[in-house]
Amino acid sequence: MVLCVLACATTTAAAQVLEIDGSGAVTRHDGPEVTLATGAAPITPPARPERAPNRPRSLDPVDLAAASTGAALSPDLIEAVAWRESQLRAGVVSRAGAIGEMQLMPGTARQLGVDPHVSRQNLSGGAAYLAALLKRYDGDVVRALAAYNAGPGAVDRYGGVPPFKETQAYVAAILDRLSQRAAAAPEGSSR
Questions:
Q1: Among 29, 31, 83, 134, which one is least packed by beta carbons within 10 Å?
Q2: pTM above 0.85, yes or no
Q3: 15 has which bridge partners?
């Protein structure tokens, strides 16, 4: 008996095994099998549970309004930062230890007096921190966003957005989101 393995290139890796017996008869095996006394039987993996459909994430409007009012910032700015930081996911923790929608570091959350695991406090704390950065940089949104991402020390050291690809992409993504939201807003509305 001769076995021949052929790899098939598709979007996912797959393989076929062709079994050629002494008489030249070819049997094709498309997946894992177990050999039984009655012949080969495919091994079927257990069914995967169906995933819930991806729902667009959004912030609680009441929590967003409270954060916006408390920090005197645009809700769109807060939402854009939370979108870039966590894709608007509550409870997410980064590899660096940043927590929640606004990705607050535990030390920053303590300084702000908020529990970063509670969405409303996470949003309010992040908005307060962003407002403090805006004040520090005389209302310069670009430098404040760069400082939110890379830290004020890096922004001060470089006199603006540091030459870090991550920080440059971060600032650009937030500004792009803000401009898209502004373009989508009905004329005469103030968001």
A1: 31
A2: no
A3: 7
CA angle 125, 131, 132 (to 5 degrees): 90
pLDDT tens string 12-63:
445 556 566 665 666 666 666 655 666 666 655 555 544 444 444 789 999 9
- 19: annotated active-site residue: no
- List the CATH code of the domain at 61-184: 1.10.530.10
Which of these is catalytic: 85, 101, 166, 187?
85
Among candidates 177, 82, 181, which has minimal Cα distance to 127? 82
4, β-bridge pairs = 18
Residues forming a β-bridge with 97: none
Domain coordinates in residue numbering, the chain:
1-30, 61-184
Half-sphere exposure of 160 (CA within 13 A, CB side): 3
